[in-house]
């Protein structure tokens, strides 16, 4: 991937961006619970995040925490990338719905990952109503906690933390080197580098990350490596085949969509995944089959967009 290609991977704060951010953070919940929140749990169980009482809301993450004394509660974690003056009321609604749905005590934590200084309140104090929850600004967390991790999902979170007293460039190099050390497979390494680029947008550091990636030849050389290309093609083929096999059991269209999504991610990364909302609007299996075959042959995302423009 060239620097100019990397810089074009910019997302506005939208549903798709939030989805990518959430997926990037899903794998590190355990370290946030244990290391940042200091919760010493006997067990942690993910809960369904859709809460339907009179209307439906979906929380970012809900975890059932069981402590050493066997007592338990629901930990509600939200990630917020912008200052929202209505956040306390949103959190209060979540609190009510979670209580009604699970019937357990609730602890709420909002992690702020935005680029602007934190300005949100964490409480409501009105007549006959006092409500409060915790807010943690990622900038208050030392990045070394994540850089020293042996898990790449944790390492990439370092881009959101407090760099002081080190320079941005030094920290970015450390993060990239740590990804190199913890991920030996080139395809997997590329995945985490791309996730790092996405998170870097929240600190206006995406261009800096892309420059260092180019200097270190982490992505540019990988994508021109014969073994990488073979591995990518093989992985895409397997993904599509797996999707089709599942389709025989779960419905051919669902299987095709699954294979297409994996193929887009492996060949085009985040830029390819952005097309999935349009792909899902294709109503016929024949058109999906045609698009699946086009993924193998197309030389750019623009070719795929042109096809989708005529098909939807």
Write the layout of secondary structure elements.
Blueprint: H1 3-7, H2 15-26, H3 29-36, E1 41-46, E2 50-52, E3 56-58, E4 61-67, E5 72-80, H4 87-102, E6 106-112, E7 123-126, E8 129-132, E9 134-137, H5 144-147, H6 152-155, H7 168-182, H8 186-200, H9 206-216, H10 226-250, H11 252-273, H12 276-279, H13 285-297, H14 301-311
Question: What is the structure about, briefly put?
Answer:
This protein folds into three domains: 3-7 and 142-224, no CATH class; 15-140, 3-Layer(aba) Sandwich (Trna Endonuclease, Chain: A, domain 1); 229-303, no CATH class.
Any overview of this molecule?
This protein has 312 residues and is an alpha/beta fold. It has 3 domains: 3-7 and 142-224, no CATH class; 15-140, Trna Endonuclease, Chain: A, domain 1; 229-303, no CATH class. 53% of the residues lie in helices and 15% in strands. The protein is built from 14 helices and 9 strands. The chain has a 5-stranded mixed beta sheet with strand order 1-4-5-6-9, with helices on one face. Strands 2-3 form a two-stranded antiparallel sheet. Strand 5 (72-80), helix 4 and strand 6 (106-112) form a beta-alpha-beta unit. Helix 8 packs antiparallel against helix 9 (206-216) and helix 13 packs antiparallel against helix 14 (301-311). The longest helix has 25 residues, at 226-250. The two termini are 29 Å apart. Residues 1-16 have low confidence and may be disordered.
């Amino acid at each position: 991937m060239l620097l100019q290609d990397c810089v074009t991977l910019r997302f506005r704060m939208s549903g798709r961006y939030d989805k990518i951010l959430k997926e990037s953070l899903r794998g590190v919940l355990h370290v946030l619970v244990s290391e940042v929140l200091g919760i010493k749990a006997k067990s942690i169980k993910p809960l369904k995040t859709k809460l339907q009482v009179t209307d439906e809301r979906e929380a970012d993450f809900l975890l059932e925490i069981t402590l050493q004394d066997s007592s338990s509660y629901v930990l509600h974690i939200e990630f917020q990338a912008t200052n929202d003056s209505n956040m306390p009321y949103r959190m209060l609604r979540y609190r009510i719905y979670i209580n009604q749905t699970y019937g357990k005590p609730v602890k709420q934590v909002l992690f702020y990952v935005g680029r602007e200084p934190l300005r949100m309140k964490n409480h409501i104090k009105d007549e006959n109503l006092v409500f409060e929850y915790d807010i943690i600004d990622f900038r208050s967390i030392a990045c070394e906690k994540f850089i020293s991790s042996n898990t790449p999902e944790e390492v990439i979170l370092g881009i959101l933390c407090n760099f002081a007293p080190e320079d941005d460039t030094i920290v970015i190099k450390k993060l990239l080197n740590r990804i190199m050390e913890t991920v030996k497979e080139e395809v997997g390494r590329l995945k985490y580098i791309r996730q790092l680029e996405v998170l870097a947008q929240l600190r206006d550091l995406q261009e800096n990350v892309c420059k260092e990636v180019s200097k270190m030849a982490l992505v540019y050389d990988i994508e021109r490596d014969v073994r990488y290309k073979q591995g990518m093609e093989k992985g895409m083929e397997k993904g599509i085949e797996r999707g089709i096999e599942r389709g025989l059991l779960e419905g051919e269209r669902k299987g095709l969509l699954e294979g297409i999504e994996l193929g887009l991610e492996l060949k085009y990364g985040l830029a390819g995944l952005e097309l999935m909302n349009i792909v899902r609007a294709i109503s016929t299996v024949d058109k999906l089959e045609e698009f699946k075959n086009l993924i193998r042959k197309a030389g750019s995302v623009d070719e795929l967009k042109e096809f989708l423009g005529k098909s939807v």
